[in-house]
UniProtKB/TrEMBL annotation:
Signal peptide: 1-19
PANTHER family in the record: PUTATIVE (AFU_ORTHOLOGUE AFUA_1G08990)-RELATED, SMP-30_GLUCONOLACTONASE_LRE-LIKE REGION DOMAIN-CONTAINING PROTEIN-RELATED
Pfam family, one: SGL
Name by which UniProt lists this protein: SMP-30/Gluconolactonase/LRE-like region domain-containing protein
The SMP-30/Gluconolactonase/LRE-like region domain, residue ranges: 194-385
Gene3D superfamilies reported in the protein's UniProt record: TolB, C-terminal domain
Length: 405
């Protein structure tokens, strides 16, 4: 977009301001080609753990104008890289205001925790409720502790959702992923020294739980992380080294990192991708596309703060008994895509530091849905055309012009 076009927009719509190489509306910042191609400062750098608006301006000329540009992006609710993003937001352009609602702030973590994590988010349409698990990432020298409760959000009243702690029985042991299937919620729990990692089925009404899968021919799984289930009952789940390598709360791994397929009807189980073939190390999030012909898998790598870390989403074709044709779908510029979701139109959503990044079906970044400054988006759940975003600190929601898969 040329500067003449930008100036014309400014004259037509005075509520839109011009910042070098940006179009700035009430809640949207549109990034232009010029900004994307050439960063507006002569010397800069950025750590992989921070979002793009926290790019560090190094020694050089006056930084004030460039810092103002970054601050403008930081203060937006949405960052637009492709005009197709406006269609998803349900607005015609940057002139219209759009809101990301902040609907709940979680209590602070205990003193032994480095941070809190909210993962395993799932919507139960029969009850019009959402669940999300809570984890406390321990400080050095501590192990992760099992938490007896999960969070329940009743959204019958959209204006004032009822959010409370509820207690599965028996309790979950460090739950991560969750999936709704045939009226039940299936959790992938990491386990600990005394409880093997497993898939647990929970009745969303009574909260009664039952372990339904906990071994690979007598082997303990390492640390199950996420789970999806096909309409025919084929369960795919990721298993990484998180418990042993990151949190010191599980037994030494005897299996490679991997993605498994478990047939609930026959009991057959096999690894369908993983570190043994050099493809994945610490696989994490999973999401089917709208017709379950594709499976998206996020790969963390050894550490999300490692410049050599994976930070990728892979796309795979789903066959009658496994996965084929793996291709790299996207590479995140900050952190790694923890929870991933899709919508009925083929877009892919990745929860990362500072935002939910939204890609078109071909892996092109369309835009970012921002969370509060300093927060990290961990996972999401669709409830109709509302996307609920679960951060480390807060719950957010945004109404979009689509629905979940």
């Amino acid at each position: 977009m040329t500067s003449l076009t930008l100036r014309s927009i400014f004259l037509l719509f005075p509520t839109i301001s011009l910042c070098k190489d940006l179009i700035v509306g009430p809640s949207v910042v549109e990034i232009t080609k010029g900004f994307n191609d050439v960063f507006p400062y002569e010397n800069f750098n950025r750590n992989v753990t921070v979002p793009m608006w926290d790019t560090h301006l190094l020694n050089g000329k006056d930084k004030s104008a460039s810092q103002e540009t970054l601050d403008t992006i930081a203060n937006a609710s949405f960052i637009v890289y492709d005009v197709e993003f406006y269609k998803l937001l349900g607005i015609s352009g940057p002139l219209e205001k759009k809101e990301v609602e902040d609907i709940f702030t979680f209590p602070d973590p205990p003193s032994y925790a480095e941070r809190q994590i909210h993962d395993g988010s799932v919507y139960v349409p029969e009850e019009n409720i959402l669940f999300v698990a809570e984890l406390f990432s321990p400080k050095e020298g501590y192990s992760m502790e099992a938490i007896p409760y999960i969070w329940k959000m009743d959204i019958t009243d959209l204006v004032s959702p009822n959010i409370s702690k509820v207690y599965p029985n028996p309790p979950l042991t460090i739950a991560n992923g969750a999936y709704h299937f045939n009226g039940s919620v299936y959790w992938a729990q990491e386990g600990n020294m005394t409880t093997p990692s497993s898939i647990v089925r929970m009745d969303p009404r009574t909260l009664e739980t039952e372990v339904v899968k906990n071994n690979f021919y007598g082997h303990r799984f390492n640390s199950m992380n996420d789970i999806v289930i096909s309409e025919g009952g084929a369960v795919y789940f990721t298993d990484g080294y998180y418990g042993w390598d990151n949190f010191n709360d599980t037994l030494f791994p005897e299996l490679a990192n991997g993605i498994y397929r478990w047939d609930m009807q026959t009991g057959n189980i096999k690894m369908v991708a993983g570190a043994v073939e050099g493809a994945f190390f610490n696989p994490n999030g999973l999401a089917f596309n709208h017709d379950q012909s594709k499976l998206f898998i996020s790969n963390r790598g050894n550490s999300s703060s490692d410049p050599d870390g994976a930070r990728t989403i892979y796309i795979n074709d789903v066959t009658a008994d496994g996965l084929i044709n793996r291709n790299m779908f996207s590479y995140s510029d900050t952190g790694f895509p923890d929870g991933i979701k899709t919508d009925k139109d083929g877009r892919v959503y990745g929860a990362v530091v500072g935002s939910v990044d939204v890609y078109n079906p071909h892996g092109t970044l369309l835009g970012r849905i921002k969370v509060a400054d300093g927060d990290v988006a961990v996972n999401m759940a669709w409830a109709g055309d509302w996307l609920y975003i679960f951060g480390r600190n807060k719950i957010y929601r945004v109404k979009l012009a689509t629905t979940g898969r």
